[in-house]
Amino acid sequence: MQETDALLRLAMLNTAYAAAIDADRLEDWPGFFTEDCLYRITTAEDHRRGLQAGVIYADSRAMLHDRVFALRKANIYERQRYRHIVGMPALLGQDADGLRAEAPFVVVRTMRDGAMTIFAAGRYLDQVRLDEVGMLRFAERQVICDSPNFDTLLAIPL
Amino acid sequence: MQETDALLRLAMLNTAYAAAIDADRLEDWPGFFTEDCLYRITTAEDHRRGLQAGVIYADSRAMLHDRVFALRKANIYERQRYRHIVGMPALLGQDADGLRAEAPFVVVRTMRDGAMTIFAAGRYLDQVRLDEVGMLRFAERQVICDSPNFDTLLAIPL
Amino acid sequence: MQETDALLRLAMLNTAYAAAIDADRLEDWPGFFTEDCLYRITTAEDHRRGLQAGVIYADSRAMLHDRVFALRKANIYERQRYRHIVGMPALLGQDADGLRAEAPFVVVRTMRDGAMTIFAAGRYLDQVRLDEVGMLRFAERQVICDSPNFDTLLAIPL
Fold it and tell me: pTM for this structure?
């Protein structure tokens, strides 16, 4: 893919991904990943040290479906809204396996009383593949958060 | 229009729209709309329920001009600054009438003493038309805010 | 350059610039500028009045290197993280000297205890040149902050 095409397609993927989460269409979220995938939420500090664990860790699309199921059970009532703003991605590399890219993000949370706070900030570090029908999917998405605290990060996927 | 072209043109339109408001060039704001247009600020909750009213509602460019006039009368002195960050749009559809698109946004407000807060977060839901000279304009812009509170939303267009 | 190409290349430049700062690769920061450059952080109010001083002012790449050196000396330990979100740029003009563009930005700061606040908001006003090897560099970058307060702006480049 040409670099500008790749960038725009990555931006479209990021936009669609964030819109699904922010519209509470969590059931659509696993579909953004390949069957065998890696999804991990970690801290900048742990990522720098090379720690592999992650606060949230899943290595298949099935595990992402399980996670959505658990979230739906835990959060019966909708209590707040989230809004992702994802910056333009940077293309880090391109090979037969697909694209490596990163993108900065900020998530704003709005409570039922209207109070708005920054819920998360950080960057996505991605490995993206073109599937058999020409759709881009995440083979790997690492969500590297600037904050070392994750009290509330069980609320939604990032 | 090709999808990537459409996306870039929508992004350019959103950027110009936000820059006009943030630079306090409110008189330019109605020009981003078609003569017969719909502009509405509403809440995510009211939008979900299909309520048509909206906190702010205008169905012609002339009404948008009136609104700017009213804002200018009310706010004689400039008291704060606003900064829109609009994410990349998603193209929802395309037909003879133009483009349907959405885009997430966050607005940061800076007070005169330097205090910065999140003023609004949400998404734009748009119907965009190509006019006779090839410029894109909003036939419809629904500003769907995550917050249910609108105490201060009379301050500026969103 | 075609307008859409120019926009995408400006967006890529802004993304790379912000990623370098947010990853604390400050030593790479001067490389985004031409040898003879202007870098200035100023307030919207001072910019409007045409004041040339700026809170931070540098007129060569060497001065930017000096600034990084001073920051490294002052901040021995890393205490917080920054995350720039830069909106899509607007192309203001194009001539033999390069491109004139602006872009809105917000910077979120995350403290070691996880507290997140908006650190800065404003817009970049840029003059960008294509160098001899086809890379875009800032001949001029004015960082026009919405806030009139700069207590903490010595922390990182914006």
Answer: 0.94
